[in-house]
């Protein structure tokens, strides 16, 4: 009787947990609401979730997924195999944790589910028909356990698994038997990589395993098209491959090439990785699947983004080229926004299969391998020193070390060109000498800005020695970007007013100061590199720029002009010689904060100030590089005031650029700062309406 009651209680508890997890997951479909923490915070949360995935099975293996409908699924031999090295690595850096003991327990579980013929079972659970891919992935865990413990039982298991895989391989290097749906798959390069891991610990079988691995990698290379895409990379023939399996294929080729010292394999992997890097740079986070022309889908495969981050990080380790480290960082920051740090146990710390949750890759589930790859990515980024990154260019003539002009990989570059363009091009040489241009990095939210900002930049370029050296785009932007959503939550009344104002039809066909302008229309931006990234260490409305990007900004720019990334703080403020310039439409002695012009209108001011300041960690408290008084006495509406403020300030960016370079010019330092104003609440908006329509 008591067992029955206990079973009912457990079922009810599991049902409640699923309900709470599903509700939390639904809220997380708006990632802009999330703050993000340090890499260490997110890594710790990921590892803790992997611990819980192991506890959920009660047997040592890691649950395949947490399913928002069905709950925890059975343990998965394939992915438990490569979770083992992740836990061991975390234990090295955190010896106080349970990670090492848990890794060994998971490896022991792998021994218990290995079949008598040496293979590992297909699917989830502890029993099943043999599967060659699962067997290969289990080898990663067995090899690492043998390295850590020296227990010969693991060496014997590695030998049995690898011997079985070699026998199952066809003469051309492919595996047709014992693989998913009985089809050939290019992503079996990860089996080849596993065989090479086996060769590293079993000298007596090393040649056999290396030969089998090479046969498979050379076979997979034949599936690679000139544009870097792979045939046979999907789970099912005829489907477009998931980013997950594309990344599997690339990583296997890359690691195989490194271990076999085969440049052809490395170059092929790098070429395909470069195509995806350019897609990330051009369109943002990678999508769920890609067809043969590299056209993506409406949803994102989060697992694949983590995997490609690892590929780029590995290429950074091999080449030292900064673009790979930045691409890995961008992937990590994108994924942080989809990892909950405060949800119910079944989902806290985990990475979903897709974003949105109903996307085509493992919808409504949190696969353990997504969280494993995310943890590996964060751990790898901890070893990156951005200042050590290099770009292979000759600063005297802009040529690469081979003496050839650098390859352009811009908007119109074909995948074929990108797939074979190994050298990374940098726009412009390091500025030296009195006549050198003044290098300006532009920070934007997304790819659009307001017309008055475009005119300010054009004026700066026309009237000063400035040139655009770099464009950094905040991917966490737009109507549902973090800044807008968090302001909306904090100031709901003003958010409603702002949305209503934006939707109101505009009269006439003339240009307005706040018209949207695509930044590609700006002079001097056409041939400049764009870096897409996400803010890091997000706390409320304050953001930092990732260190990898800050390092690039510091190397390529003399000053930063901020029109994006919200309230910025951190190392960006001191990354360049002349800091970060930013507009504030208000006199800081009386009106800090915002919204621009609103409180001046409410207080019947006859003038308002506009400044360009060098930012500090305090809001609107920087050194003023340009100041103007704007006459607003004849303005009857808030919109008229804003037009005067914005249109009247377009020349101030040029003034500020001149001022920071002129050591003879004393900056305006405001000692007596005014109060900080905030968006109005409902009562204040009502007062505004009475004033506006009286």
UniProtKB/TrEMBL annotation:
Offer one example of a GO biological process linked to this entry.
Answer: carbohydrate metabolic process
Q: Which residues form a coiled coil?
A: none
Q: Which residues form the Squalene cyclase C-terminal domain?
A: 74-250
Residue segments, region Disordered: 388-411
InterPro entries the UniProt entry points to: 6-hairpin_glycosidase_sf (IPR008928), Formyl_transf_N_sf (IPR036477), SQ_cyclase_C (IPR032696), Terpenoid_cyclase/PrenylTrfase (IPR008930)
Skewed-composition ranges (Acidic residues): 391-402
Protein's name according to its UniProt entry = Squalene cyclase C-terminal domain-containing protein
- Native organism is Halorubrum kocurii JCM 14978
């Amino acid at each position: 009787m008591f067992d029955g009651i206990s079973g009912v209680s457990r079922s009810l508890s599991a049902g409640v947990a699923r309900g709470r997890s599903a509700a939390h997951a639904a809220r997380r479909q708006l990632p802009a609401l999330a703050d993000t923490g340090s890499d260490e915070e997110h890594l710790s949360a990921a590892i803790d979730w992997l611990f819980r995935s192991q506890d959920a099975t009660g047997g040592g293996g890691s649950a395949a997924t947490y399913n928002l409908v069905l709950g925890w699924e059975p343990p998965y031999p394939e992915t438990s195999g490569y979770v083992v090295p992740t836990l061991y690595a975390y234990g090295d850096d955190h010896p106080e944790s349970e990670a090492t003991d848990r890794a060994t327990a998971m490896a022991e579980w792998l021994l218990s589910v290995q079949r008598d013929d040496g293979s590992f079972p297909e699917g989830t659970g502890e029993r099943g028909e043999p599967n060659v891919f699962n067997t290969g992935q289990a080898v990663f865990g067995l090899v690492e356990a043998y390295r850590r413990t020296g227990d010969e039982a693991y060496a014997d298991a590695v030998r049995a698994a690898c011997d079985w895989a070699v026998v199952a391989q066809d003469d051309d290097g492919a595996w047709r038997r014992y693989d998913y749906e009985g089809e050939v798959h290019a992503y079996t390069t990860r089996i080849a990589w596993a065989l090479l891991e086996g060769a590293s610990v079993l000298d007596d079988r090393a040649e056999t395993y290396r030969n089998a691995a090479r046969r498979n990698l050379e076979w997979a290379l034949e599936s690679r098209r000139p544009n870097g895409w792979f045939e046979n990379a999907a789970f099912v023939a005829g489907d477009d491959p998931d980013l997950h399996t594309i990344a599997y294929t690339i990583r296997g080729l890359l690691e195989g090439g490194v271990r076999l010292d085969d440049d052809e394999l490395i170059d092929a992997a790098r070429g395909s990785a470069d195509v995806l890097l350019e897609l990330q740079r051009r369109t943002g986070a990678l999508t769920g699947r890609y067809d043969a022309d590299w056209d993506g889908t409406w949803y994102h495969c989060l697992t694949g983004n983590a995997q490609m981050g690892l590929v780029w990080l590995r290429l950074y380790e091999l080449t030292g080229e900064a673009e790979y480290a930045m691409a890995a960082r961008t992937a990590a920051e994108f994924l942080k926004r989809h990892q909950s740090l405060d949800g119910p146990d079944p989902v806290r710390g985990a990475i979903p299969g897709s974003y949105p949750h109903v996307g085509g890759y493992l919808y409504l589930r949190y696969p353990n391998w997504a969280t494993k790859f995310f943890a590996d990515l964060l751990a790898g980024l901890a070893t990156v020193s951005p200042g050590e990154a290099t770009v292979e260019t000759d600063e005297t003539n802009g040529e690469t070390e081979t003496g050839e002009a650098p390859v352009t990989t811009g908007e119109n570059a074909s995948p074929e060109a990108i797939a074979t363009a190994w050298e990374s091009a940098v726009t412009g040489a390091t500025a030296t000498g009195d006549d050198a241009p003044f290098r300006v990095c532009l920070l934007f939210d997304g790819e659009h800005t307001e017309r008055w900002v475009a005119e300010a930049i054009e004026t700066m370029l026309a009237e000063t020695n400035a040139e655009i050296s770099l464009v950094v785009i905040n991917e966490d932007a737009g109507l549902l970007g973090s800044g807008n959503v968090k302001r909306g939550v904090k100031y709901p009344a003003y958010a409603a007013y702002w949305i209503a104002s934006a939707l109101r039809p505009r009269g006439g066909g003339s240009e307005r100061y706040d018209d949207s302008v695509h930044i590609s229309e700006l002079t001097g931006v056409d041939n400049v590199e764009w870096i897409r990234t996400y803010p890091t260490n997000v706390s409320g409305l304050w953001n930092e720029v990732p260190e990898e990007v800050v390092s690039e900004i510091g190397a390529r720019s003399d000053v930063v002009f901020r029109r994006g990334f919200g309230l910025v703080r951190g190392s960006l403020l001191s990354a360049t010689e002349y800091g970060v310039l930013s507009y504030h439409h208000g006199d800081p002695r009386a009106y800090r904060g915002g919204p621009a012009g609103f409180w001046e209108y409410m207080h019947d001011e006859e003038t308002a100030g506009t400044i360009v300041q060098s930012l500090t960690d305090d809001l609107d408290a920087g050194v003023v590089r340009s100041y103007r008084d704007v006459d607003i006495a004849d303005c009857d509406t808030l919109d008229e005031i804003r037009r005067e403020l914005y249109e009247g300030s377009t020349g101030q960016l040029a003034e500020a650029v001149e001022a920071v370079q002129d050591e003879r010019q004393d900056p305006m330092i405001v000692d007596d700062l005014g109060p900080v104003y905030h968006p109005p609440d409902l009562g204040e908006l009502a007062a505004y309406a009475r004033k506006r329509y009286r």
